[in-house]
Amino acid sequence: MVKQNQSTMALLPLFLILSISAEMEGAKKSYGVNSSDNNSVKLFVFGDSYVDTGNFRNSGAYKPPSGMTFPGYPAGRFGNGLVLTDYLASYLKIETPTAYALKNSSNLQNGINFAYGGTGILKTLVDGPNLNVQIDSFEQLIKQNTYSKSDVQSSIVLVNAGANDYTKFVLKDRNLFEIVKFRKSLIDELKVNIRQNSALMNPLEPCCALESVGYDCGKVDEKGQKKYTLCEKPELSFFWDNAHPSQNGWNSVFKQLEPSLSQITGK
What we know:
This is SGNH hydrolase-type esterase domain-containing protein. GO terms for molecular function: hydrolase activity, acting on ester bonds. It holds the Pfam family Lipase_GDSL. Keywords: Hydrolase, Lipid degradation, Lipid metabolism, Signal. The protein is of the alpha/beta class and 267 residues long. It has one domain. Helix content is 38%, strand content 9%. The protein contains nine helices and six strands. Strands 2-3-1-4 form a four-stranded parallel sheet. A two-stranded antiparallel sheet has the order 5-6. The longest helix is centred in the first third of the chain and has 20 residues, at 12-31.
């Protein structure tokens, strides 16, 4: 079961890339985003734990060993360091937009991140704001004049959703045979591409491995004993845990996405 889950999770970065590419292309056509807009570009982020940078306060993202590579302590990212949101913001030459949960104490000039780990398009296993609720929150900020029409018109939108809807189905169904069979060719291709990257060590093995079923990365038992083990070199891993890429993994994903971003933003 663990191996099946790992193979299935290996597909998720593909869904993310396609989702981003579609949204960015839409932003270009609708708002005319180009290199002359760099100084006013804002990044608005919607989705789940792949792009969340601090909204899910009561989660493993705020517990060790999360954040051990960046910023050096747990800070709300589901992984050991930077996630795709950070890489995209850096590409746009802006700071990572603040998490919506922290909006009262942070600068909003670079945009805002509504993404909430574990949520999806529909209701998922996590009781958090799904995509529709996140969009409603954004609309409310516009009504409150937190962001102007010109802010929106010069913005980039990053959307990642659907992975947790898929995971909910998997967990309820408990039978991955048809799913794995249907997507086998995509999984095999992704494995080949990852292994071709000589900078990665054991790329399909999660750096944060669970010792027992029912625990997540960062969890401890009633005696405070860790129920996970860490790889020696997180910087060489592709996956942080069974569900999330590591900082190195996200960097690899972004490098594949970057040529498309150049065409879309004109940079």
